[in-house]
Write a structure and sequence with these properties.
Number of strands of chain A: 0
Number of helices of chain A: 10
Structural class of chain A: mainly alpha
Strand content of chain A: under 5%
Structural class of chain B: alpha/beta
Number of strands of chain B: 12
Oligomer: heterodimer
Radius of gyration of chain A: 20 Å
Distance between the termini of chain B: 29 Å
Shape of chain A: elongated
Largest interface: A-B, 35 and 39 residues
Number of helices of chain B: 9
Strand order of the largest sheet of chain B: 5-6-7-3-8-9
Strand content of chain B: 25-35%
Helix content of chain B: 25-40%
Chain lengths: ~270, ~300
């Protein structure tokens, strides 16, 4: 039983070094894959172009629906870059053995998640920048000003965090990437219809509003509307105000819930 | 001294000098006993081939040693440590080529091997590894665009770039054409010359015979025999079969003294014996007998 002590291992690479390496892997994996770029980045852009051209009616106070849609499509873009992306991507990597392979290396496990977070951040940022650019250039969207940027940052950040954690948790339920996509994509689309992305939230039946309010997308869209719409339009919201405190609370709860689900369900290999 | 010469017996102590030492290993999946009291020692520096039919417990045993699966009973030491603890420094001394390989990647071969190298303390030079596995010309090709055989060589490149002391190869040549298998064998031999210990599982008996220093046969969750390939199942002392043609008929004789028998035949024919052949049971013959008539 007296196992000989292993020879003093020369220092393993530092955490930051492995984090950099994993981040670079994750960025290349995403941006080089045509399907994921089209699906995650270009789809919201296409929707913005089409809806912006077709549905430019006046919401009152001289604000066009495009300005309203801008907030919603950015929220949907964040959902795609985080929740949909992670659920499909990690389910695929679990079923094709990539995760199992990584588990057999001395890579610190945290590096895997750091790489994913960097990927989500980069895709989210790219999605927001492209959408804003198109909005400004083609549809004369009014950019946020002053402290609105701050609200923009925390709503997007907190929303992306909640959705990333949820996406990772969902990936553990799915059998593989295809089944993850088949479940998550229709559900995300449904949420987009009832969370105030494609239609004004105030025009959706109240029972659908209640259902939508259980999920993060509705709150992300609402928080972002406070950024893109004049405060005069807050009266159209269900509570008659932007409810930023509640936005933070609900997204925060989803972060905690998502984290607990991740910790309890994450698997590196198929059972 | 540790009982590494043959098969360790139940109750023998773990061998502290062995690369892998396993005693009384048990793994159950529900009511199914996949590994049923397995004992095994693998020496440092050797190539050990684990043979056995599907479902015999090969992959389960190997994956317990790699740290992928838990065990229900028994003791396991891999490079002196319990795989269940699986610290980073321990994993850094292993190389693992899984049966399943890894997925479609958008990264090039060079990028994949470079990323893998970044997890290790003292990795091999990436170009050196690519040339060792014969992928130098494919260095700029994306992982997803490689053929099946090239992917397997990439898997091996990923397995060896960390300069492992111990390399696990789980059915590494499944799906290879004969030429690719020969190339792979010479790669394995050059790794052995570099001092790497290897645990190889395979379905190909010729592969085990060509590569392995010792062969272990698993059947129904137990190791039924360990021997050098030429001696497995008492092969080298088994009666030889002499066949020849006489009076237009094929004749066969089993004999423990084939040399004397052939000398007699030669004298009887006063010259060449028509269609003479002398053979011993092949590895396949003894293997099939072993897994069929397991105790």
């Amino acid at each position: 039983m007296t196992a000989t002590a292993p020879p003093a291992a020369p220092g393993l690479p530092s955490l930051p070094a492995v984090y950099r390496s994993r981040s670079s892997v994750e960025l290349k994996e995403f941006f080089r894959q045509r399907e994921s770029v089209v699906f995650t980045l270009l789809l919201p852009v296409l929707l913005l172009v089409v809806f912006g051209a077709v549905l430019d009616f006046d919401l009152g106070s001289g604000v066009s629906f495009t300005q309203y849609f801008m907030a919603g499509i950015i929220a949907a873009g964040i959902l795609g870059a985080s929740l949909q992306n992670m659920a499909i991507n990690i389910a695929t990597e679990r079923s094709d053995g990539t995760l199992k392979h990584l588990l057999g290396t001395p890579m610190p496990r945290s590096a895997f998640f750091v790489g994913k977070v960097v990927q989500v951040l980069a895709v989210t940022l790219a999605s927001i920048v492209v959408l804003l650019l198109i909005g400004v250039v083609f549809y004369r969207i009014d950019l946020p000003s002053g402290t609105d940027w701050l609200t923009f940052a925390w709503v997007a950040g907190l929303g992306a965090a909640a959705c990333t954690l949820l996406g990772i948790a969902i990936s553990s339920i799915a059998k593989n990437g295809r089944s993850a996509s088949a479940t998550v994509t229709p559900f995300a689309l449904l949420l987009q219809f009832i969370s105030g992305v494609f239609f004004q939230f105030s025009e959706i039946p109240s029972w659908m509003q209640t259902f939508a309010a259980l999920f993060p997308l509705k709150w992300m869209a609402q928080g972002l509307r406070s950024v893109f719409l004049p405060d005069a339009l807050a009266v159209d919201e269900p509570a008659g105000s932007w409810e930023l405190g509640r936005v933070a609370l609900v997204l925060g709860i989803w972060c905690v819930l998502g984290l607990v689900l991740c910790v309890r369900t994450f698997r590196w290999q198929d059972a | 001294m540790a009982p590494v010469a043959g098969r360790p017996r139940p109750g023998d102590p773990l061998d502290p000098d062995a690369a892998i030492s396993v005693r009384g290993l048990v793994k159950r999946y529900g009511d199914f006993v996949a590994v049923d009291g397995l004992d095994l020692d693998i020496r440092r520096g050797e190539i050990f081939a684990l043979l056995g039919p599907n479902g015999a417990g090969k992959t389960t045993t190997v994956e317990i040693c790699e740290g992928y699966r838990s065990r229900d009973a028994g003791e396991v030491r891999v490079l002196g440590e319990d795989p269940a603890d699986g610290a980073r420094a321990w994993k850094a001394r292993l190389g693992i080529v899984l049966q399943s390989g890894s997925g479609d990647s958008q990264l090039t071969v060079r990028e994949l091997v470079t990323a893998q190298a970044s997890y290790y303390a003292d990795p091999r030079d990436v170009d050196e590894v690519l040339s060792l596995v014969g992928l130098t010309e494919k260095a700029g090709v994306r992982g997803k665009a490689l053929s099946g055989g090239q992917r397997r060589r990439l898997d091996v490149a990923l397995g060896i770039v960390g300069r492992p002391t111990l390399l696990f190869l789980d059915e590494p040549t499944t799906g290879f054409d004969p030429e690719a298998r020969r190339q792979f064998w010479s790669l394995i031999r050059s790794l052995r010359d570099l001092g790497t210990t290897m645990l190889l599982t395979t379905h190909y008996l010729d592969e085990a015979e060509a590569l392995a220093d010792r062969v272990g046969v698993i059947a129904r969750g137990r190791l039924v025999e360990v021997a050098v390939p030429s001696a497995l199942g008492g092969r080298e002392t088994a009666p030889a079969t002499v066949t020849w043609t006489e009076d237009g008929a094929r004749r066969t004789e089993a004999t423990a003294t084939p040399t004397a028998f052939v000398a007699d035949l030669a004298a009887r024919f006063s010259g060449e014996v028509p269609d003479l052949a002398v053979s011993r049971p092949t590895l396949e013959d003894v293997y099939l007998q072993m897994i069929g008539t397991d105790r």
